[in-house]
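User: Here's a protein and a ligand (glutamine). What would the complex look like?
Assistant: Let me lay out the input and then the predicted complex.
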Amino acid sequence: MRIGVLSIQGSVAEHLAALSKCGVEAVPVKDADTLKKVQGLILPGGESTTIGKLLKRFGLGDAIKKAKIPLYGTCAGAILMAQEILNDVPEYSLDMMDITICRNAYGAQQESFVIDLEVPIFGKKKVPAYFIRAPKIVRVGKGCEVLAKLKKDPVLVRQGNLLVSTFHPELTEDLRVHRYFVEMCR
Ligand code: GLN
């Protein structure tokens, strides 16, 4: 199985490493031809305005929408997948998942934090989660399954073959979120 990581900007190398540790072939995706060869795609964190602009410029955004493969967006990737974005809306986004997300909702970079998160589907052992200038998911549509919450806010959400997290599992040694996504791609 081959899974891609959108390789425009952001934490690309960390996602590639996590996928490799899950035992799949991990490939950076920069163009529509490479996209055709992967069974799933991770959209990494970074700066959603920048990634959005380049997705449009390279024509890769439309290719991703048409590919109909499982997608996993972390942080900025989650913002780009949302159907509704609040607070400094990027000029281009993929507009795919039935959620509303508010950018930079925890404050500036120095308000970033790491916390042990309860994720019921993964059992008792908590998941270490880095929130880096993270967005907040403020609404989820009917077809969405909330897999984890931080206080009242959904932070890991699935809708069919789309998965988003507002935190960064690729910055830890815990592979459970990546393994979960790999299973979605089978
Ligand atoms: N603050 C970034 C944005 O709004 C997201 C941060 C991240 O991906 N860690 O695009």
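Summary: The first strand starts at residue 2 and ends at 6.
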